[in-house]
Structure formats: structure tokens, C-alpha cells
Amino acid sequence: MQFAKKVHVSAPACPGCAVRLERRHRLEKVGMVSTVLGGTWLGLAFVAPLFPAWGKVWVAGACGLAAYVPLVGLQVFWAPPFSITAWGREIAYEFTNEGYAREFAELNRSEAS
């Protein structure tokens, strides 16, 4: 687990790579929403009937957020050593280790910031 400053490196992206990375980001968002909605549905179907009428919505919302907690834990505590963001005609790489970022920038003839 690292809470250090990330180093940003940009490099040109091939059109196919950018499309695949954008698709992956969209699928992550869909996964997040479907996990929360699925947890909320399970909360409404199985847990909320055990509570009084005024608390059913709150219990269902809490179940939806509880379903999302493991995904957040994976992203925070076991984050990859770098992340990739694709936009326009370039890909941005963010490294948790400055040495890796500098070496990557040298190999790809780009600048680290």
C-alpha cells in the first residue's frame, strides 16, 4: 500500500490500444454500477423485509455500498504498480515508483512530469 506521489508519463497511443483501454474503463464503470445495483436489489429482496418500513430503503442502500466495498479494497490496497489512462491520441501512464517512470520515459523517448 503506497500513498506516495504518482509520476505522470505520456506516450503516443496506437488507435487500437486507445480503443481497448477506453473499453476497459467503460467496463469497469459498468461493473461498479452493476455491483452496487445488485447489492441493493439483494438488500431489498432478502435483508430489508427484516426491518421496519421506514428503514428499508436505507438498509437496501447500505447493502449496495457493502457489495462495492471489496472492489474498492482491491483497488486501494492491491493497486498495480502503474495505471493507464487513454484519451484522445495519447496514453498517460502513472507510476507509483519514480525510478520506473524515469526508465519508462527514457525507453519511450518521452518526458516524466
Fold and architecture overview:
The chain is 58% helix and 16% strand. It is of the alpha+beta class and 113 residues long. The chain has one domain (7-107). It has a 3-stranded antiparallel beta sheet. The longest helix has 33 residues, at 15-47. The chain is elongated. The two termini are 22 Å apart. The mean pLDDT is 81.
**Are there runs of 5+ residues with pLDDT below 50, and where?**
none
The largest sheet, given as strand count, sense and whether it forms a barrel, is: 3 strands, antiparallel
Q: Mean pLDDT, as a whole number?
A: 81
Indicate the overall shape: elongated
Number of helices: 3
The total beta strand count reads 3
Output the structural class: alpha+beta
The rounded distance between the terminal residues' Cα atoms is: 22 Å
User: Helix content range of the residues, please?
Assistant: 55-70%
Radius of gyration: 20 Å
Order of helices and strands: EHHEEH
Q: Which quaternary structure do these chains form?
A: single chain
Major sheet: order of its strands? 1-3-2
Number of domains: 1
Strand content: 15-25%
